[in-house]
Design a protein that fits this description.
The structure holds 2 protein chains of 2 kinds. By secondary structure, chain A is of the alpha/beta class. Chain A contains 4 helices and 4 strands. Chain B is of the alpha+beta class. The chains are: A alpha/beta, B alpha+beta. Strand 4 of chain A pairs parallel with strand 1 of chain B.
């Protein structure tokens, strides 16, 4: 906002008020496609989509649960789902997508292996989207 | 449309509260991300740890080869 943004839509699972009137809280759990769609319908225009939601589960890969939660629900499919939903608005604005990830995309941190795997996946997602959306979109 | 991938090191948020390691402030990381978007960086390394280690890792993991791999898009699948 210090750079002159006219409006910031802040997606949150439990919306809280913000002292700056330019901030519009939006109820949006990024793992819930119905909530994502409801949020999109409340937004007039978007120049920059920032996929920042994340989760870091400590695990040791003995159980598939954390891996599934990290890659399917929290990182990979969440970034994909939100991006897909906002794509018409972003296309209209010839906007930018910012996928927040981690250096663990390149170097796994064995303390959080499922997280590291999910970050490698979202980095790959960014690369493909960049190529697919580069021309004219 | 542009797509920017942020490759961050540890950031001082709730997510990393149990890790006793050096962390960058969320404010400085946010600033570096918008700087990167403004100057058109595709991959953004927004903190000191990411700049030192991340950029080197990206290089080693073939960041430089991406263009040549992407050029294979023009190749046609071989039909049996």
């Amino acid at each position: 906002m210090s750079r002159g943004a006219k409006r910031v839509y802040a997606g949150m699972r439990r919306p809280v008020a913000h002292p700056d009137a330019r901030v519009t809280p939006l109820t949006m759990d990024v793992t819930d496609s119905a909530q994502i769609q409801e949020a999109v319908e409340k937004v007039e225009s978007v120049d920059i989509l920032i996929n920042n939601a994340g989760l870091a589960l400590y695990d040791d890969l003995t159980d598939p649960g954390p891996l599934e939660q990290q890659t399917r629900r929290q990182s990979l499919l969440a970034q994909y789902g939100v991006t897909r939903a906002f794509l018409p608005l972003l296309t209209r604005a010839r906007g930018a997508i910012v996928n927040v990830g981690s250096v663990t995309a390149f170097a796994s941190l064995p303390l959080i292996p499922a997280y590291s795997i999910s970050k490698a996946a979202v980095f790959s997602l960014s690369q493909s989207l960049r190529a697919l959306l580069a021309d004219g979109a | 449309m542009t797509v920017h991938a942020v490759l961050a090191g540890p950031v001082d948020t709730e997510m990393s509260r149990d890790l006793d390691i050096p962390k960058a402030s969320p404010e400085s990381v946010a600033r570096a991300i918008f700087d990167g978007v403004e100057i058109g960086d595709e991959d953004i390394f927004p903190d000191p740890m990411a700049q030192v280690h991340g950029a080197e890792l990206a290089q080693r993991c073939g960041q430089g080869a991406r263009a040549s791999v992407a050029a294979l898009v023009d190749a046609q699948p071989v039909k049996p």
